[in-house]
Fold these 2 entries.
Entry 1:
Amino acid sequence: MANYSTNEFKGGLKVMLDGDPCSIVENELVKPGKGQAFNRVKLRNLMTGRVDERTFKSGESLEGADVMELAMEYLYTDGDMWYFMQTDGSFEQYAVEKKALGDTAKWLKEQVSYTVTLWNDNAIQITPPNFIELEVTETDPGLKGDTAQGGSKPASLSSGAVVRVPLFINEGEVLKVDTRTGGYVSRA
Amino acid sequence: MSDWEPSASIETLRARAKLLARVRRFFAERDVLEVETPMLGQGGSTDVHLASLSAEARTPAGRQRLWLQTSPEFHMKRLLAAGSGAIFQLAKSFRDGEVGGRHNIEFTMLEWYRPGFSLTALMDETAALIYAILPSSVLPPSVLVEAPSAPKRYVDLKRYAYRELFHTHLDVDPFIASLPCLRRLAAERGFMPAHALADEPRDTCLDLLMSMVIEPTLGQGELCAVVDYPASQAALARRHRDGHGDWVASRFELYLNGIELANGYDELIDPAEQRARFEADNAERRELGFNEVDVDTRLVAALEHGLPEGSGVALGMDRLIQLALGKPRLSDVISFDTPRC
């Protein structure tokens, strides 16, 4: 991979730091009136998701990370691994470990397209679409007449997620949910 | 915003023009002559921490490498040696690689020289200029008192010695702390891994601590000056001994709202010392694997002829405009910043 100097660090650039692939979040030049210039950089570690701050002497460089983001459809799980397939017509499949799946585990639905982050051709992160439609598998029956008060109750969805929904929602209905907030949006 | 468009709004550019007019009025009232000096010079700044741009030019002497000036200092000092008296300039200056919220590769430097002025007198005049340019809404609430006697004194300019700031913020003496101690502290407080500082000299550690820990706290609610920098950070300033008997640089930096606005020197006038500093800079450049920069031998010749004793200061005009107009980024006050130039 190419090397990138601090001048070239910008949001979204993927670089290697301490052996892990990272994505640059922010880069600011700081320089005393006279003397050595530094770059104050925020990086997101793509393995842990943590954002760290690091200072570099201006002009230092980091190796680029071979990171790609591809759209893939979720296929199935055998309990150990989760299988995804590229949607570009190549039908290439990737097996994903639980660790890379992270919180996305509760938003999985077959035939939905996810963003899969690959590092050296291994899946390290799965990002769900912002909105997803899922069926309610379990919720208490709604109480008639309460709809106007706008109360809410928990509902389990087919993917395993539990979200707060309005009282009028019943089992078997399909809902639109925001995966970033875990919030109910509407009936689908 | 599509990228043919200016990075500053037309309204901002109108406000900028008014501020520049105010700067010219300030100096006209004080009989300081406006000058224009070349942006391209046969010599450049040898300062190890400034990266110069250069251009190949066809000149009467054949193909020559000419250096885009990192500040108008050398040419202005040659004017001083030629008897110009007090001079100022709004000069386009260039520093390679410097791009960010407070930096642009090409920028406007307000630089002026005051033969016969002490560093203190120039510090006061710099504060006066800032008070003349900035609207009262962005100035510290402290009261400005102008004494009737000359030179004018502005008592609300706080002065902090470099040593004192390190004592206050880091509980360390920058002049006597051991190098391993400074490296450890710089790594810890500067968000750098220890191994990255293992071979770094004192000044890198001090610069890191200054930039990351101290600078953001400077000039919060006050206009302040930092004085008595370590002698190794003298650049083109003279040196003197401070109250502790340590050699320090006779220079100041001025801060408002955590932003460094100006850098002033009691100017070095000794040609032998000037030549020695140029050579030391280039030796350090060789050691670090940086390009050497052609030394301005004509500046040395001008010093040999005789530069009047006095002080000079360089002020980041774009930053001052940024503060005056309350804009978050330097690009907001520059017609076309480097990414869209």
Entry 2:
Amino acid sequence: MLVLVVAHAVAALAAPALVRALGRRAFGVLALVPAAAFVWILTQLPDVVAGTPREEVVPWIPALGIDIALRLDPLAATVSLLVTGVGALVLLYCTRYFAAGARGLGRFAGVLTAFAGAMLALVWSDDVFVLYVCWELTTVFSFLLVGQDAQKRASRAAAVQALVVTAAGGLTMLVGLVILADAAGTTRLSDLVAFFAGPAATPAAVTAGVVCVLVGATTKSALVPFHFWLPSAMAAPTPVSAYLHAAAMVKAGVYLVLRLAPGLADVEPWRPLVAALAVTTMLLGGLQALRQHDLKLVLAHGTVSQLGFMILLAGAGTRDAALAALGLVVAHAMFKACLFLVVGVIDRRAGTRDLRELSGLGRRAPVLATAGILGAASMAGLPPLLGFVTKEAAFEAFLHDAYGPAAVPLLVLVVLGSVLTVAYSTRFVWGAFWRKPGVEEVRWQPPGALFPTAPVVLGVGGLVAGVGVTGLAPLLEPYADTLPVSYPALLELAVVPSVGIALGLSVLAVVLGFALGVPAVSARATARHPLAPVRAEITWRGVVHALENTSLRVTALTQRGSLSWVLSTIFAVLVIGPGLVLLVGPELGEVRIDRLADSPFQVLAAAIGAACAIVATRVRRRLGAVLVVGGLGYATALIFALAGAPDVALTQALVETATLVVVVLVLRTLPRDIADRHTPRQRGRRLLIAVPVGLLMTGLGAVALAARNAPAVSAAYPSQAYGFGAGANVVNVTLVDIRAWDTMGELSVIVAAATGVASLVFLHRRSGSPPRAEAQPVVTPSTRAGGWLRAARRGDQDRVLLLEVITRLVFPTMMVVSVYFLFAGHNAPGGGFAGGLVAGLALVVRYVAGGRYELGEAVPVDAGLLLGLGLLCAGGTGVGALLLGGEVLQTAVLEADVPILGNVKFVTSLIFDVGVYLVVVGLVLDVLRSLGAELDRRRLATVSRQEVPS
Amino acid sequence: MTSPIVLLALIGVLYTVGVYLILERSLTRVLLGILVLGNATNVLVVVAGGRAGAPPLVGGAPEAEMSDALVQALVLTAIVITLGVTAFLLALIHRTWTLEREDHLTEDVEDRSVRRRLEIGEQEDEEELDTTGCENTSDTDEDDEDDEDTDEESALEPAGEAR
């Protein structure tokens, strides 16, 4: 079974390519998939009807007890036959509906096929959460299909409306399903229903769950008060309307009610809620349908009405009503899909679907008209069509005490609804096919043989199923038999009605319907205005507007457009929140200060750092301020070193150097001084925020240690590092093994930052390596071909020979040191970060001494390549460990005796560290290339541009 | 266990300075503020990690005397990320300078447009609600008819041979 669902997914993915290759004929190929599912279900029917459902279970989330459980029982078989059968026909129909080269057809084909698969899985799923997932999938696909014509505003609005309404309902339903699954202790749908069908007490939570689930069904099946999305969704192409909004998706709500009724129909307030909403919907939809001019909208409102009818029967929770409901689901899927497809043909071939403009179509297109009339007759409930059989059964079901004492009043309303149905069916047939006095005969282009095939098949299907309903009944009855019997005599579906009240009501409905429908036919009546607006949609729009306005207001309130304002707010919250807790709580009082400092050097370092920081606020010279902050960085490095953190100190010192260079590279293009535009009052206000933050953080620092009441998580790190990570440097092993995930995340951040820098500077194209020496324009005739540095041939006045000499001598040494750090880092201070930074600084030296072409000579590769390779190494280590049967990012130790070298130990986390190394080098190179070399180039370009005119 | 006063005081000073700088309007000072705050936070994390001890190198000292390796790994990561963030901020500064010849934070254009939309939008909403209130159902009707008109040219055209 899962194979068939997956086949839909595969077909959906292949659809765009298929459409590209075959054009619209691709739909014919895609139709084979649901057709195959249809045939497969047919082959399973004997077993399924005999009482042995097909089941398939694939574990999905064992920890939550959620499996992909599929189950083909009689109910699922019936509905899935409709889903696949109509699906295949609609796809076939699409081969003619769309123009050969229509835009967006590949996407459309894919989404429609995917929808068919999701719908099939929904009907088959036996796990409430799988059902929910499929449910939301159909919502999303419906959104995409309704919004197919994304250029049109109406189309987009309808798509969003359908999405919001049904997704909101879906989420509500999820809450309900969680409650029910929790109460029943199982997520398996069949077990859940069986649990509630049994003698179980129903706590209040179950009541809430039932209401939530019903909200989901109500939104999906467009019941009042959520009915408005369905007519709007008619903006979709007609095949979508036929499939989603008649045969399949809107039936999901009916299906859910049918599925749960055996267990939950007796839980309050199931019956009153269902009956009230459903019967209102039935009448309202019928009235609205009578007042539409657009054939598609007549059908859409008719669908709303019929959905109400179906859910009314499905929710009754009696055997006879369920039988009638399921029969009606089958009949409705056939006649409504048929009618929509007929309208699609009319729309395409006559150029309109307004019934005021169509005239004389019946004679021009007799085959199409026959199909349409068959469909409409089934909808109206005329014998011997399936619609008649099921409507008869529905009346019988109410006579058989569905809804107990409420049966008679409900029956009256249902008969009234049927009168309306007959009336709008009459109106549909007259409007589409009849000749109208005073209306010009429609221009008609014959649609060919294949186009009307699908509606004809469905229309005739309604006839065949009606006449041969005794053949259909064995499929429908097993489900109905799972419900309690409400009446001594069992209802049987029969095409020849027994003379009785039900038949009388049928005749009454048809007569009254004609009486209502035929006058509505007259030209005067068609001009009637639609029914006074139903408030639901206005309310919906109002809510959406209010939401947008609120969001705008909140945004305008919080996002003032001023960074300092936003930051002030954040800091204020920080001070007021945690600050108050700190002041009120007992922790601060428990802090015992026992020493001034750990060593005199610490005092010195802290004093230098604090002094640098304070001075930085006063310096106006840009570079001066940067240097002062750099001093703070080195002081911090000293503090780390004194705190027993050689790795951190090393990294801090290296980063500080790199930062200084990079900052200077950029700030050289800015004016010398920072413009001071602040009044003393503003400074005072900033201090007012800054000082409390400083005090708070001091307090937090003091409390942090005193508040510790559990052993540190890292207590076992040293032994773990040596035992599992095979390294003596605990910090390094922490980085590459114990907490390698953190490092992975960090590498991603660095890659993102480097990419961001390059994008902000280059704007258009960021890839490519720095320019090589060959690309250098010859400024001076190159008399000294072999200089100290290959590319250092700038104008002589720019050259610093001493620097070039030193660079030539120091660069190889630095590279060796960097590689040493990389390899030694596992057991001694160093590691990928430190190594990468040293290599980066070596590049900085080359660049500073030799200019931008020298950078290209030093690393003639794309910085992006280094970054990517680095990520690949790091990620590859993780995946590799997984493939070799370990945990992600687990370290393996390979040891071997190599001749000459002796015992060699290789730790796989070294590869990870190489990745770190490469990413860091890539970051420095990318920054130098962007903020260094590229800015150089632009400055030169500006200078030469300025020189040319003069 | 407690921390040395000197470091706590340093944390206080650095946070004060960092916040003071980051609230400036000059982007360069904002950058400096971030650098100072980065240092402040790193010191705070190391201080929170406990008493200074021997370097965490197995074999160099007994495990009990070692300083906490976890905070060191965290801080090490943070330091390198700060470098990336600094570079990115610098690129932003450069970009702002190229575009506006201005090293100052200006009011965010998007935020201003939100405020404007709020002022204009409220009036529009009222108008729109009025019309929908009058004839809502026909509204959908017309939408659909519009569809008819545009269908001809739109993405999914009637079948080709029809023409």
